[in-house]
Write the structure tokens for this entry.
Amino acid sequence: MPAQTAFDPFLREQQLRAESVSWDTAYVRAARPGDIPLLDLTDWLQHGRTQDLQALSRQLRIACEEVGFFSIVGHGVDRSVIEAQFEQVRQFHAQPEEAKQSVRMDRAGWPHGGMGYLPMRNTKLPARDVVNVNEAFLVKADHRITLADNQWPNPSRLPHFRAATELYARSLLALGKRLLPVFADALEMPSDFFDAAFAEPSYRLRMTHYPPVDGHEFGINPHVDTTFMTILAQDSPGLAIYSERLSQWIAAPALDNAFVVNTGELLRQWTNDRFVSTKHFATNNTGQRSRYSIPFFFNANADYVMQCISSCTDADNPPRYAPVSYAGSQAVAQGE
């Protein structure tokens, strides 16, 4: 059994990049029924009964141990909020280049990094030698940065963008917190186990435009997320995931009024490799239309130290990883 090792974020980033280059992504088949589990949150969110929680957590446990991705319906986020956000994202990316560049990520003089406009054909998020054929606008928040501290496009051009984005971010933050008892029960822990860890959660919202490409370029390069979990809205197919259960790349469908959820590196380490962190990438080679996606990267309080969950270790399965906080892992944030 591997010994527990201290977390070296720079080494882990190098490992993730090296691993991703070795993945064979040449063949992706269409998803078949059951390949990507579908969880309906309706009964749990409406009634909050123990039996509803347990039924849902059993499904989530299987999904996180065997696949790493699942879709959710009955999530409680109003369809109009999602549709309004996609419309604002399309309007943002339809702006002239100079308008987008005025809120460019990591521009000189802006006090916070990792927020704002990420131009087309970038080599960030994830950091790779081959370009990601997408452009994105990102906002983030944590215990010290609020949405008010982010860059925002000129309201004279996009008068409804900020209000729609803040509402969407609040809605996804609430959804993420509603899922925490399900994750806790799936790990045989008390339903409030994650409450303290997510009292002031860190999150990032990415609003991405994928233009049509030929079959030889990635919209976003193969990677794993560095998150606790990611909640994704997509307006059309293009996401491909690697099913650990099937040892096969699967094209994830874009289900009506559904989110796709996946677990990330930090949850994998927190659970001592019990929950998987799943390889995935995105393309847009299925037609001549642009594709848009909005992933919400959800993490614990930036300074909360995640120690191996007690249900994920025993005498024969000691902790593999030293405790680490989200802030302490941020050298690998490019994996998001």
Observations:
- The chain has a mean pLDDT of 90.
- Residues 65 and 275 are 5 Å apart (CA to CA).
- The chain is about 25% helix and 20% strand.
